[in-house]
Records
---
Amino acid sequence: MSFFEQLAAGFASALDGYGILIRAGGVAWGIIGGAIPGISGAVAMALALPFTYALDAPTALVMLAGVWAGANYGGSIPAILMRIPGTPASAPCLLDGYELAKQGRAAKALGISLICGTIGGLISIFVLIALVVPLGEIVVRFGSPEVFALALFGLTLIAGLSGPSFLKGIASGFFGLLLTTVGLDSLTGSMRFTFGRADLLTGVDTISVMIGLFAVSEMFFLIAHPARPAGTVVGTATTEFPTLRELREVGRATFIGTIVGLIVGIMPGAGATASSFVAYNEARRWSKRPELFGKGSLEGVAAPETANNAVQGGDLVPTLALGIPGSNSAAIILAALILHGIMPGPFLLTKNPELVYTLFAGLILVNLLMIPVGLVILRLCLMAMKLDPPVLIASVLSLIVIGTYAGDLFLLNPIQALVFGVIGYGMRIWGFSAAATVLGLVLGVLAESEMRRSLIISHGDWSIFLTRPISATLLFLTLGVLVYPALMTALRRWRSRRVAAAPAAK
Amino acid sequence: MKKRPVVQMMCALAVALAAGSALVTPAAAQKPRGDFPTRPITFVVGFGAGGGADVFARALSEASKTVIPQPIAVENRPGAGGTSANAYVSGRPADGHTILFGHAGSSVITPLTVNQPSLKWDAFEPVARIHAEEEWLMVHPDSPWKTIDQLVAYAKANPKKVRVAGSAIGGIDSFVVLAWEKAAGIDVEYIPHDGGGPAILAFLGRNAEVVVGNVSEFAQHIEAKKMVPLAVASEKRSPIFPKVSTLKEKGWDVVMVQWRSVLAPKGTPPERIAFLAQSFRKAMAAESWKTFNKNTKAVDLYLGPADFRKFLASEEKRFAAIIDELGLRKK
């Protein structure tokens, strides 16, 4: 069978059976699950897994793919509306998304996130379909040194997130890095900063800390400064969706997001969260209006949301080409296969092509379904903006407590959210950057464990980072982005001095 | 008050999910035995959905459909190397309606290393050991070592030169390597990863000469000629690759398998434990269970409550010796 015949058969199979409803149901649950703080895409998929027992394997796969795609998008809804990152990967989106909401442009931000996310998801699936076999060969080239270099590259974003005081930004970033050292050391298994408590063995809970620093602190701020806020959020403009012109304006950011999402998705270990932070930073670097970032830039919503949807295609490369899941979400796709009696591995493509093509077709289908389903849910969520501030704050805080508890059923998580809410409030008052802390928290684990693992691989030789082409390129890029701004400032100063000196010489 | 529809919808969905997971297994084949089980059984797994432990629990609950008149719902409570679930289950009513997943890592090794006796296997009632996966040592197809003896000879002459990729320290993979190093008198560089998948990727990317792990993760790569088995850490040669020698027959007493089992809270009535154990034994004859074992290359290694308790005690002794020798136990 030719490629197109197989894909056509895949579409027939993806559309067959229980009809479109079950896919739309999967997408809807994904969006809602992603929107509930503490329920990540993988958890939403895991909750849907028992339902798939009763379905045949292709339908089960497509439904789970729908949950996955939906959750990638859903995280941005509370991020934009309430400054709650629904999933860790939606954290960069709230930096501009919530600002837009405060300006009464929530629907624009939500619309951009939905449309750009869908575009990113679709392009990554097309790339996956076309290149899964050659990319499968490339996956193994991304080892520990490469992931470390990527994490370091991402950490340069601290500079961009610092706000007015660079020193306080760096301090905030290091606070995040420090937090990642709590728990079981992933390489030696020894305990660090656990104070003998078994419940600290797994370290701080990334999403609870994020929710605390961003959302809980914001709620405290709204309570402390009741005059200003939420009231202004309620605008008549809330249902104004993005125009075609605005979509064109974020084209560059969407493109950057797609590329970053694909590359980071293929890298094992680095996931959706790393990709959306890197995409946010790159979009600002290449933006025509970088000054708008952090103050309500549509590009600042488009880039990370495109990236975390585009990760899906990248994640599936090792999953389908080698049978090794590229992420927790991809692992659930594999678990569904095993439970349906199909063993994933390097032969999945040749032994069960009909299943793989059904998955391909299903992924395209669910990404397209995202727009109508997303629009319905979005309209419902926008109603939340019409709540009175006290009601809104109370609802959000209870949603946070329930959501952070529901993910792992672990009481320490909501406690962490509240404690870091207080810390975040203090950081905000004294001019520290919560975003830089979150970045350190997200990339710190990667940077530390991958660096140490690289050094075990190289028998302690540091040159491993420079002798491997991908890692060396990334490190030089890192050096470049650090030195370039300083160099430009120096150059400008030198030029102006020359200009000033020139007339004096006459 | 327009927020309500959303919140209500979320609540409704949560309720629907909970109800749905209970409805998935309606087929009751036998009459309830006395008063047990009277409601769905919760199978608590200390690892995330999609991993080996989770898939095992779900396959077992699926196979038990026909022998246990109530459904078994799998509940994932990941954290602290699986021991978060131990802590949770120890506080649940000991009436047989809550059971716990256990393997060497979560029931023996981690409780020993963190020095938490309340999380260890003997703070629970052993129900049954169900099946096990063999642990294998693999090399690249173009590896200079064609036998395990050649590899050991090289490692003896070149300490710390051979790199072995595997899952995290404290897991069974790392203990196979530690015990092997000790028995063969060699010193290799163990590279820990966050699970078997990343370890295989690192190996395929030529960041290690050897990879250690569960056979289910390797089988297809062997077929694809990307890996060659060198040795197995089992009692006897594997039925899957009978040509490959065991570490034991080379004179190194390294017998470790990734066994998976079921435990119950301390004080669960013995007749309920016996009922569960017998039911699982019957479930292991189900077609779905056989397919699952075949696909994951696992072998049934059933032990009833009493034998399983003895086995756990011997496992604890063995692992405690290695842990203390390496100073991994928390003071």
Note: Residues 229-237 of chain A have pLDDT under 50 and may be disordered.
---
Amino acid sequence: MKKPNILSIDDEPSFTVLLKEYFEPRGYDIDITSAGDKGLELLHEKKYDVVLLDLRMAGLDGGEVMAEINRSNAGTKIIFITAYNDSGKTRERLMGEGAYAFMEKPITSLKRLEELVNRAVKAD
Amino acid sequence: MNLYGISNILIAITSSGIALFVYVKGYRSKLCKIWSVFALCVAIYGFGAYMAAGAKNHDSAFFWWQISYVGVIMLPALFLHFVYVFLDIRKTFLIKIVYLVTLVILATDIFNKQLFIGNVSLLFKNSELFQPAWWVYPPGPIHIFYTLFLYAGILIYAHIKLIRAYKRSERSKQNQIRYFFLATTLGFIGGGTSFLPCSGINIYPVFNITVPLYPLIMTYAIIRHQLMDIEVIIKKTIVFASLFIILFGVFVGITLITQELIAEGRIFGLAISALIIIFSVRPLEDLLVRGTDKYLFQKKYDYRQLLRTFSDEVLTVLDLDMLVNLTVNKLVETMKLFNAAMLLHDEKNEEYRIVSSTGLEDVEFKLKDDEEIIVYLRKNRQHILFESEDGQISLSGNIKRKISGLRSSMVIPLFHHKDMVGILSLGKKKSDEEFTQDDFDILLPLARTLSIAIANARLFEKLSVAQAQAAQREKMAVIGTLSAGINHEICNPLGIARGQCEMFLLNLKEGLYAGKDPEDLLEKAKLIMQKVIDETDRATVITRKLSSFAKPAKGKLEGNVRLKKEIEEVASLVEHDLRLDNILIVREIQPDLPYIAADRKQVQEIFFNIIINAAQSIVSGGKITIRAKSDDKKVYVEIEDTGVGIKKTNLNQVFNPFFTTKDPGKGTGLGLFLVKQIVERNKGRISVQSEQGKGACFRLVFKAIVPEKVKI
């Protein structure tokens, strides 16, 4: 089975680089960007199975990017990875709006993230 | 009028005035009552003698001498009675006998013309200066008995009593007894010279003039009864006596000269004397006071004025430490004390503890709330004098031992409403003098003022602490809302560092590195480790900044605060967060900005609050511009935002406490209020300019420190 296509959008470039370095050698197709609008451009050009999305970003933030994905890229799973923590309020809201999962930074295991990505694709 | 007449009219006037004064002042005290009757009798003596000596004829003189002697006869008995009461001698037998004898003699004076007065004669017929005067001569047998046994006898007996008591007495009482001796010398002996012509010794009773001083001195000693200052009264006596002698000399001299020169000399002379006396009495008195001060007492009594001035000043001191130190030092210095201390109540430890002292070895001295002396002071709310017997308290040896560490001569409780906020302890005067009523007149009001000043200073301290706490809470609350930015700056590096390591290990485990050149692998590992180090450093920087920022301010001004650095520190802390809200921080800061004298943390708080406030006023994206420039004397900072601005009507309220336009629960309304307080505490000024819809601009001015004064 083909491994999922991943898009990572995070305003912390070193983090997206880390993800790329992890996922690529494991056979995933992964694109990275550090701005929301750039991410949306990529989404228009290519179909991604999973988007790993930061929440708070200058310019378009994670919530806005998700809304756009929900509108134009139905079926793309969104996993939020963020340091933002307001005791679960935002998490609940975003899950309610269709996010697949919510992971808090610092992520404690790349392995678990990988499993999560795989589960997300299989969930359909 | 002759000299004798003048001295007698003086006696009559001063003594009757004193009789009334003493009675009004101390009508409850037995001592004062006796003394006022005594003074009244002296007045009767003076008035009678005045009328008698200048009488027109024999009968009139006789009558007035009878009246005069009513007063005189009473004096020995009253004096003895007075001494008994003063020395607290309980046996009254002798006094009763003496009063009885006095009554008998009074009766002979009034009812029998021969037995007491005998007869009266015009004496000093040839005296030009003093003029002739009617005198009791030759006296009756009872008169002789009276003079020898009552007048002289009782005087000697009473003084023996006083001398004995003097040896046993505490110092304050000794002081009073010294007055008595001084007064008696002037009064009884001066008055006694009036008896000389009666006994056929024709010496003019010049010393009668000292009699008015006698009741004056005694009265002073009684009214200022607890303690007194012998030097002051001696000084006053010297001034008064010299003044009198000089003026009298002028009067006599001018009268004599004018009498020689002109026929109507006497009236003319009187007029000139009166003029001279009127115009010279004040300057002469000043001269004498200054002279005695300068040559005899070296101005040491000026401290009272100093202390009075200090009482006025003390209320303006709001720093508690400064207040207590100032007080203790001022008291020691002006009153010339060996030592002094101020104890303040420590509610937490339930004790009174020395907060400032001079001349004490045990500077840590404290008294527990349940200590006997504390209980006593709280109950009685009165000062305690330790070296005096007539201080209203007899202290147990235990108390005296307990507070021996204070080496107090007196302690004054400081009451504010119901609370005894502190205790002022004063040691001995270096002059070895007692504390006098004059001292109390200053110290006790000073203590009251001090109590208020201490309460004020404490309140101010509490308020400052409360304000600092509020500022801290506000700061922490804002840091909380900044968590996104802070988390971002901490969690990302942590996640990346961890991820890099995890990835390397997983790659190794899952065989992704299989067949790789060990050199390449080592390179890879090195790269990862460098990344981990970089990311850890990044996290460290932000935690350091955060912890230094979160620390409460010290409240001390330092002379080397660099505004540029502090602004940068704050800006970097909030910048990330603001960027997420699309707020840009623009810096226009002059590179060589001078130092300012301030508390570094407080300066950070100021900028933090203003920047956050500015950011909160920006709805969707905008700019905060921080400008800073300086001239020779001042550093100017502007923080301008592109937010919603402030309504004109609110403009003068933004620095008021609890003023907020934010939704309930969103703002405490303390932010800008605290900012203003802190700015002022750091010797700066803050103002705001704004137009609704066009943003706001906060302007701050601090005093620049000239470079050579900077401590590096």
Note: The first strand of chain B starts at residue 120 and ends at 123.
